[in-house]
Write a structure and sequence with these properties.
The chain is an alpha/beta fold. A 5-stranded parallel sheet has the order 3-2-1-7-19. β4 (158-164) and β5 form a beta hairpin. It is globular and about 105 Å long. Bound molecules: flavin-adenine dinucleotide. Flavin-adenine dinucleotide binds at residues 86-87, 89-92, 111-114, 121-122, 124-125, 159-160, 191-193, 212-213, 241, 329, 332, 363-365, 380-383, 385. Residues 86-87, 89-92, 111-114, 121-122, 124-125, 159-160, 191-193, 212-213, 241, 329, 332, 363-365, 380-383, 385 line the site of flavin-adenine dinucleotide.
Length: 640
């Protein structure tokens, strides 16, 4: 080699060395040396992570890190991210798995203070109800599976007790040994979930009073039922977990009483849509105590619990389940100075970033924007938690992902029936002051879940809320036996895509007689609402019946009219209407109804064209009946 070439080569090597050293000097002007010692047991040699992260800055090694090795691969290692995840169930596990799919070189560690990772919280009521027989079936993934399939380390019984944002470390208490150690992160994801609310009432810690959040909770409830041979259960709270537990305890042969402080169960529904559920529960022997609050507990005779109520009444039960909601688990975030919103959830933006760089948060612990009202909301559901976990991983890995907002799309099975909803209820819109200016309208319908001529059709009661000006779909609630959730899912997607009632009208959906109708309930909802917007159908509502000076006109058949009608209604069957039209006043409003609103729509179209001041009562007599409180005492089936 000629001396000139050798000196150039030497110089080049020198420059490369200086460049490499400069790269290793971090933003705090500290020289960082080692590559990560893979703290994931059995971590194989990993290829380069080529995914650049605009979100993460240059990595800073911190105290407490495992950094014992130095190797020439150090520059490559700088590209690796250390992602620590607090909470390993819905949001956390989903984030971890997605992060691994995006980067083979990231180091991913999940910490969970519990005994399990990635278990099926949503299956717990069915484990108590013995529908899910084996506890192991609740385990969606084990630490071994995470390690072997995804090269993700899971540390259980590992309680994350503090975050040091400046040093980018967390402190973890090993609940087995009691020792506390630190771990450094490039990206920290909080998915700590929520805690069941347990009010500070006298006797709250008595044996036999349970909350349901974890596998051990469900195991304890099962054991208690078996050991005490429980016959009577009292459920505090008539929300969806209360309803799922009601179903499962009824299934196990217990007599169930539900105490709910509001005037209806399923408080996220509008009262008239909760009414069929209440009627169903009463018919199945479930006792409902509405407008009632539990004030304390005491031990009664023969192991029974005495439950004191605000009205002065007392109930007794072998088992009490507290289903009164959850509170976002924000202790860690608050202590670290992260912003917490007015609903008590960790504030995140659409990219799931908290107020602090390098920290993301997802799931039940966060408050995010509502897709319809654009207000912040805490919506503790598995779907949003999973999607948010995935989005956080995407963002950490430099992708342009963002969360579209929550709609609260939910479904609950109750004793053979189904209730589902998406978007804000009328009640919620009224609370936010959004209803009263007339921007929103609603319609009710009760179509069969499939073609009426095919055996077995059962009705779906559907309420659709939409904007009057442009027909944008806002929300929907439905109750029935079959096909309920499918319709709500279609409407949920329409809402997310800012779709209108005209889109529902035109939606092309599956049809064969055993599955649906050529005009699917979703199409019907769109058509009815579109008729309202176009002025083809003028509608009135059940809640205005008591105040209206209008003539109420029943157009059903005589036998139907005889079996019950809206008080004070005149009666002209639809088939006689054209002949007897002269009996109707032209100088007075007329509100027509039939059983579900279809025949009265035909009547109102005819009368409108003859110049009558006619409106159709949306949802007809059925909606009127649904708006009346049923007798809440059960039919006597299983009650004492
Ligand atoms: P979680 O799944 O609760 O996980 C949080 C984890 O973080 C926990 O394991 C906890 O131990 C751990 N943790 C918390 N703090 C720390 C810490 N400091 N250090 C270490 N670990 C920590 N949703 C639906 O959509 N449909 C349903 O049918 C449904 N049914 C449900 C039934 C029941 C009985 C329950 C309890 C919930 C149900 N949910 C349902 C709600 C759903 O399970 C939650 O929305 C979802 O699990 C939230 O996910 P997450 O990751 O935010 O929190």
């Amino acid at each position: 080699m000629r001396p000139f070439t050798a000196s150039v080569l030497l110089r080049l090597v020198g420059y490369a060395l200086i460049a490499w050293l400069l790269c290793r000097i971090n933003k705090n002007n500290k020289l960082t040396w080692s590559v990560w010692r893979p703290s994931v047991r059995g971590n194989p040699a990993r290829p380069l992570d080529f995914i650049a992260s605009p979100v993460l800055g240059t990595h800073t090694h911190q105290a407490g890190e495992n950094q014992t090795e130095f190797s020439a691969k150090g520059f490559d290692a700088m590209q690796r991210k250390r992602i620590l995840i607090v909470g390993g169930v819905a949001g956390g596990a989903s984030c971890a798995a997605r992060a691994r799919r995006l980067s083979e070189t990231a180091e991913i560690v999940i910490f969970d203070r519990g005994d399990y990772v990635s278990f099926a919280n949503c299956g717990l009521p069915y484990y108590v109800g013995d529908v899910i027989r084996k506890e192991d079936d609740l385990l969606v993934a084990t630490p071994e599976l995470f390690r072997e399939r995804f090269n993700i380390e899971v540390r259980l019984q590992a309680d994350v007790v503090a975050i040091d944002r400046n040093r980018q470390t967390i402190s973890v208490r090993d609940l087995r040994s009691g020792s506390v150690y630190e771990e450094a992160y490039d990206a920290l994801v909080l998915s700590p979930g929520a805690t069941p609310i347990r009010p500070n009432l006298s006797g709250i810690d008595l044996p036999g009073i349970f909350s349901l959040r974890t596998i051990p909770d469900s195991r304890r409830i099962r054991e208690w039922i078996d050991r005490s041979q429980a016959k009577r259960a009292l459920i505090v709270g008539g929300g969806y977990i209360g309803m799922e537990m009601t179903e499962n305890l009824v299934r196990r042969g217990l007599a169930v009483t539900v105490v709910e402080m509001q005037s209806q169960i399923m408080p996220l529904l509008d009262p008239e849509m909760a009414m069929p559920v209440q009627t169903l529960l009463a018919s199945e022997g479930v006792r409902l105590r509405l407008n009632e609050t539990v004030t304390g507990f005491a031990a009664g005779e023969s192991g029974l619990l005495r439950v004191q109520l605000a009205s002065g009444a007392e109930e007794s039960a072998d088992l009490v389940l507290l289903c009164i909601g959850v509170r976002p688990e924000t202790g860690l975030a608050r202590a670290a100075g992260l912003e917490v919103g007015e609903h008590g959830g960790i504030r995140v933006d659409a990219r799931m970033r908290t107020s602090s760089p390098h920290i993301w948060a997802v799931g039940d612990a966060v408050e995010v924007r509502d897709a319809v009202t654009h207000r912040y909301a805490v919506v503790p559901l598995a779907g949003p938690a999973n999607r948010q976990g995935r989005i956080a991983a995407d963002v950490i890995m430099g992708r342009e992902a963002s969360f579209r907002g929550v709609q609260g799309t939910s479904v609950v099975g109750i004793l053979g029936s189904v209730v589902a909803f998406t978007g804000p209820s009328e009640k919620a819109l009224r609370k936010f002051g959004l209803w009263d200016d007339g921007s929103y309208e609603k319609i009710y319908l009760h179509p069969g879940h499939h073609a009426g001529y095919y055996p077995g059709a059962s009705p779906i009661s559907l309420k659709l809320i939409f904007r009057r000006d442009d027909g944008r779909v806002v929300s929907a609630q439905a109750f029935g036996k079959e096909g309920v959730e499918r319709r709500i899912d279609v409407i949920a997607m329409t809402i997310q895509k800012s779709g209108t009632v005209f889109d529902l009208e035109e939606a092309e959906l599956c049809y064969a007689p055993q599955f649906g109708s050529a005009k699917d309930p979703v199409n019907m909802a769109g058509m009815i609402a579109a008729n309202v917007i176009r002025g083809d159908a003028r509608i009135a509502h059940w809640e205005d019946l008591e105040r209206t000076p209008a003539l109420i006109l029943d157009v059903r058949d005589p036998a139907e009219f005889k079996s019950g009608s809206i008080p004070g209604a005149a009666h002209i069957p639809l088939d006689e209407l054209r002949r007897r039209m002269g009996e109707l006043p032209r100088d007075r409003d007329i509100w027509a109804y039939c059983f579900v609103g279809q025949r009265s729509y035909y009547a109102s179209r005819a009368l409108q064209q003859y110049g009558y001041r006619i409106k159709n009562i949306s949802g007809g007599y059925k909606t009127f009946l649904q708006s009346r409180p049923p007798a809440l005492e059960p039919a006597g089936k299983k009650a004492e």
